[in-house]
């Protein structure tokens, strides 16, 4: 039995760094093994819903995120061909309704805030250029991460936060990611390059058959995040050379003038084919456990992947510290973590697919969808409450009730 507090984390993305911090704040010694030569995120935006901002607040990081982020007024769905606003959700009251605000921020700003907090915490060791290639258990109470450069690291438990193509996940599952047939182009551009809605604090998704376009302001409105997503007809036809910038242009030809202008400013240097995976029946293998995209990669239509990873991090730290404080093996905490997080995270993963189908539908289904959206009460929270609800939170520090000692923010 190991009541030790030494944790290895494979992967230093948003999920891995947030887990490092949550665990360190609860008294664990953490080593993060990151594959890249430096910690970093791509130059695009990130929506952070109350289920994530509650955790960031409990870590004492929300103010820093708010400083570099934007508090949007509304989440809007509009028609990509006519610009007609179909429905909107007022998010300005989310702080009171769900215990945390809805924030949009630059990904690299969010990662830098997590990184700075990790660097300031003596219990977190951050190692880069460490690609975990194998996880073994050399004896009953130890897990070992072996890296591509020949080094290896021992701990009491290991967290696989190594993303969509997780190496740690292979301990449990040998399936491949599932390609949705959709490709994204994205990036943050100076606001003056995007005439459309540049004065707005809304997060807008312009939706339509086989494509959508998302816009929202970043960095006090000086930048605009833009995401263009389309179904690759060439991929579906089995042709080579799919998902190219030319195909992007063709996919958005039947779009409003506003969207065509916005599209001309979108980065074309890199594209992201959109993958998810089928839900797992367990996230635990021996002394290893999965978190974030390694556990439940999802399509981005609910803007919840990173939010769910942040929730995982909080819950995992809460559950592992509960096991250790009760004098039990630290891995006993895996069960509580999995019980609390697997259901909500996998429901979100599955709902994201449905949400995508609803956004991209055509014909009669599109007509019915638009009719429903036009009549929707803007204050109706039924569709989002399940993702943001406090009831889905396992940690008492984030929930508000204190049933056992909670860490204080730095
Ligand atoms: C277009 C798009 C828009 C999105 N928008 C949102 C949004 O608005 N809100 C939201 O909440 N989510 C959003 N998401 C989802 C979100 O980006 C992911 O869910 C989130 O980044 C997952 O974080 P993670 O830390 O689990 O994984 P990752 O961010 O993938 O991080 C994994 C880390 O592990 C490292 N790594 C990989 N393999 C190894 C290895 N073998 N050894 C060591 N290190 C390794 C990688 O280098 C990386 O740093 C979006 C996704 C897309 C594609």
UniProtKB/TrEMBL annotation:
Q: Does the keyword Iron apply?
A: no
- Show where the FAD-binding domain sits: 6-350
GO MF, one annotated term: FAD binding
User: Is Flavoprotein there in the keyword field?
Assistant: yes
Name the cofactor(s): FAD
Keywords (A to Z) from UniProt: FAD, Flavoprotein, Monooxygenase, Oxidoreductase
On the tree of life, the source organism's domain of life is Bacteria
Against PANTHER family, the record matches this protein to: GERANYLGERANYL DIPHOSPHATE REDUCTASE (PTHR13789:SF318), MONOOXYGENASE (PTHR13789)
| Name this polypeptide is given | 3-hydroxybenzoate 6-hydroxylase
Species source reads Rugosimonospora africana
